[in-house]
Write a structure and sequence with these properties.
Elements (H helix, E strand, L loop, with lengths): L11 H14 L2 E5 L2 H11 L7 E5 L5 H8 L3 E5 L10 H7 L4 E7 L8 H11 L3 E4 L19 E5 L12 E5 L1
Parallel strand pairs: 2-3, 2-4, 4-5, 5-6
Antiparallel strand pairs: 1-7, 6-7
Helix pairs in contact: 2-3
Length: 174
């Protein structure tokens, strides 16, 4: 199968995965060849363009700011919390401007980001919250669970990710 990807990239297996992800995480799922491709497509689909800003934590993987740059936007780095290495909601609030079009929170090393605070902050400013779930298993329990809180959730299925599938990615949209 690895030598003949056309046999599994589309068809019943992909459709089943899309349905299961959507049902488990409460949204519509789209599959991509990588998480970074999914992030780029997501940014474009929510209208991120040149001159816009996307807030991310300063401690992140280079593919995140690369996808933002590819969409034509500017990456705005926010501080992280010392204890969790996750996005600091207080610093995010200071960095929001009229050009801010999204906030991306990653769950660093499998430690959940401060979802309640980020969700409330983004809702107050009508900014989409994108959860980067590359290094955490989404939590199917509760309305503010990991992978279920943001407007969107990004999954990466690379060999070094929490959900390893050798390659691939998904975006869940609510």
């Amino acid at each position: 199968l690895l030598l003949r990807p056309w046999r599994w990239k589309s068809g019943p297996s992909g459709d089943a995965l899309r349905r299961e992800l959507g049902a488990a995480l409460g949204g519509d799922a789209a599959l991509f060849s990588s998480g970074r491709e999914g992030l780029f497509a997501l940014l474009r689909s929510i209208g991120v363009k040149e001159g816009d800003e996307v807030i991310v934590q300063a401690y992140t993987c280079i593919v995140v700011p690369n996808a933002i740059a590819a969409a034509g936007a500017k990456t705005v780095y926010a501080d992280i919390e010392r204890e969790t290495l996750n996005l600091d909601p207080t610093d995010v609030a200071r960095r929001i401007t009229p050009q801010t079009k999204a906030v991306i929170c990653q769950h660093t090393f499998g430690i959940p980001a401060p979802l309640s605070e980020l969700h409330e902050l983004c809702a107050r400013h009508a900014i989409p919250l994108i959860e980067d779930c590359a290094h955490v298993l989404p939590d199917a329990a509760g309305p503010l669970g990991v992978g279920r809180t943001g407007t969107h959730a990004l999954l990466s299925f690379g060999r070094d990710k929490a959900v390893s599938g050798v390659s691939g990615g998904a975006v869940i949209t609510r």
